[in-house]
Amino acid sequence: MAADLGDLVAAHPLRERLRAAHMRALYGAGRQSAALDGYEEAGAEKPPDDDHDALVQRLKSELRAVDAVIFFTPEYNRSIPGVLKNAIDHGSRPYGESVWEGKPAGVIGVSIGSIGTAVAQQHLRNGLAYLDTTISGSSTMARARDTAVLEYPLSINAR
Ligand SMILES: Cc1cc2nc3c(=O)[nH]c(=O)nc-3n(C[C@H](O)[C@H](O)[C@H](O)COP(=O)(O)O)c2cc1C
User: Fold this and answer.
1) Least buried of 25, 63, 123, 150, by fewest C-beta within 10 Å?
2) What is the pTM of this model?
3) Radius of gyration of the chain (CA)
4) Rounded-to-5 percentages of helix, strand, coil across the chain
5) Contacts of 127 (CB under 8 A, 6+ apart)
C-alpha cells in the first residue's frame, strides 16, 4: 500500500492528501524515518509558478508605469469577473508593495443586462477604495444590444 501511494505521490507531487496518506501508511508500517522524509520533501516541493510569477511582475510594473487605470468591466452574477479580482489582488501584494495606493481610477461597465453592471461596479469600488486608489464617486453604465454595439455612448468619469 505504501508503495502504491508512493507511486501516486511521485505522479502528483503537489497533492497534499496523497502525501498525507503516504506518510500515514509509512508510519503505520513502522517506517517512521521514511514518513519524516516525505514530510520534508513536501515542504521543498514548489509549484511550477515561474511563468505565473513573471506575469504578476509584468502586471505590477505596467500598472506602476501608468498615471491612472480605467476599469472596464462586465458583470457576472452581480459581481466582477474572477480574473479581474485576481489581478487586483495580485497588484495589492506583497503587503506594503501595493501598486494601487494613490492611483487614480475610474470604473465603467457594459452589459446586456438591465442592471447595467451597477452591482459589479459597486463591488469594484469597495475594493478600490479599500486599496486607497483615488476613485471617482460616479458610475458610468452602458447597455449593449450585443457585445459589439452599445445602446448608449460611454463617457468617462475618472478624475
Ligand atoms: C456567468 C455570467 C453571469 C452574468 N451575470 C450578469 C449580471 O449579473 N448582470 C449583468 O448585467 N450582466 C450579466 N452577465 C452579462 C455580462 O455582463 C456581459 O454583458 C456578457 O456576458 C457579455 O460579456 P462577455 O463576452 O465578457 O461574457 C453575465 C454573463 C455571464 C456569462
Assistant:
1) 150
2) 0.65
3) 23
4) 45, 15, 40
5) 85, 88
Alpha helices in 114-155, H assignment, sequence order: 118-130
Cell numbers representing residue 144 in the block: 449593449
Residue with the three cell numbers 459589479:
120
> Residue ranges per domain, the chain?
2-44, 51-151
User: Tell me: the pLDDT tens digits for 37-77?
Assistant: 888 888 776 655 566 788 999 999 999 999 999 999 999 99
Fold type of domain 51-151: Rossmann fold (3.40.50)
Question: Which value, to the nearest 10 degrees, does the dihedral of the CA atoms of residues 142, 145, 146, 147 take?
Answer: -10
DSSP state of 76: B
- Of ligand 1's listed atoms, the one at least distance from the Cα of 117 is 11
Pocket-forming residues, ligand 1, beta carbon under 6 Å: 74-78, 111-113, 115, 117, 147
